[in-house]
Amino acid sequence: GESVGLHLPTLSVQEGDNSIINCAYSNSASDYFIWYKQESGKGPQFIIDIRSNMDKRQGQRVTVLLNKTVKHLSLQIAATQPGDSAVYFCAENLSGGYNKLIFGAGTRLAVHP
Amino acid sequence: EAGVAQSPRYKIIEKRQSVAFWCNPISGHATLYWYQQILGQGPKLLIQFQNNGVVDDSQLPKDRFSAERLKGVDSTLKIQPAKLEDSAVYLCASSFGYQETQYFGPGTRLLVL
C-alpha cells in the first residue's frame, strides 16, 4: 500500500554535530520527495526536495540523499543548531497524480547545547 | 510574499456541533489542499482543488466533511456534525501548480469535547 515511514521516531544530537534523519518509502512509482520541518504550533515548512532522477541535492546546511534501489531517503543537517529542533517529515509524491503527498509519521530532532 | 493564511487558529466545540475553517492561499497559487493532522502523525490529505474544481477528495469523509473553493481563491472546510475523533490540526496548503512545492499555513487546532 501507500506508505512512508521513518526508521527513528526521535533523534537527540549535540549542538554543532551533524544530524541524519532517515526515511523509507514503499511506492516505487514515486518520483518526487520532500522534507518538511514542523515546529510546535506551526505548519510544516518546506526544507528541500529531490526528484527521482537525482541521487543527491544540497541546500544551505542540508543535504538530501535518495537511494531508489532500497527506497530510502535521508536528510543530513550540518552543524545542527538549537533552532533545528523540530519534527521532520519526509513525503513522497506519486507520479502521474495530482501532486498527492504521502507523509510519514515524522522524526523528532532534539538538539542539546 | 504573504504565506497561507488560516482562521481561526483554535476552536473548541462539543460533539455533534458544526465548525468551519477558512483558508486564503498564496496569491497566484492555483492548487489548494486541506490536510488533517492527528497528534503524533503526519498530515493526511483530505481534499485537493485545482482552481475551483476538486481533483482529489478520496479521503474526505463526505458524510460529515465538505469543502468549497469559490472563485478559485479562498476555501472553507466544514465539519457537520463533529465527532470526538475529528480532534486534530487542519492544515491548508497551496502550490503554484499541481507539480509544484506545497506551502502550508499555520493550521487550525480543533478540539471536540
What would you note in describing this structure?
The complex is a heterodimer of chains A (113) and B (113). Chain A is mainly beta. Chain A is built from no helices and 11 strands. In chain A, strands 2, 4, 5, 9, 10 and 11 form a 6-stranded mixed β-sheet that branches. A 5-stranded antiparallel β-sheet of chain A has the order 1-3-8-7-6, with no helix packed on it. Chain A is globular, with a radius of gyration of 13 Å. Chain B is built from no helices and 11 strands. The mean pLDDT of chain B is 94. Chains A and B meet through strand 4 and strand 5 of A and strand 5, strand 9 and strand 10 of B.
Give the fraction of residues assigned to helices of chain A. Answer: under 10%
Q: What share of the residues of chain B does DSSP label as strand, in percent?
A: over 45%
Order of helices and strands of chain B: EEEEEEEEEEE
Terminal Cα span of chain B: 37 Å
| Secondary structure category of chain B | mainly beta
| Assembly classification | heterodimer
Gyration radius of chain A (Cα, Å) is 13 Å
Q: Which structural class do you get from the secondary structure elements of chain A?
A: mainly beta
What best-fitting shape of chain B do the alpha-carbon axes yield?
Answer: globular
Q: Report strand % of chain A.
A: over 45%
Shape of chain A: globular
Largest sheet: number of strands, sense, barrel closure of chain A: 6 strands, mixed
| Total DSSP E strands of chain B | 11
| Tally of helical runs of chain A | 0
Low-confidence stretches of chain A: 1-8
**Can you give the helix content of chain B as a percent range?**
under 10%
Radius of gyration of chain B in whole Å, from Cα? 13 Å
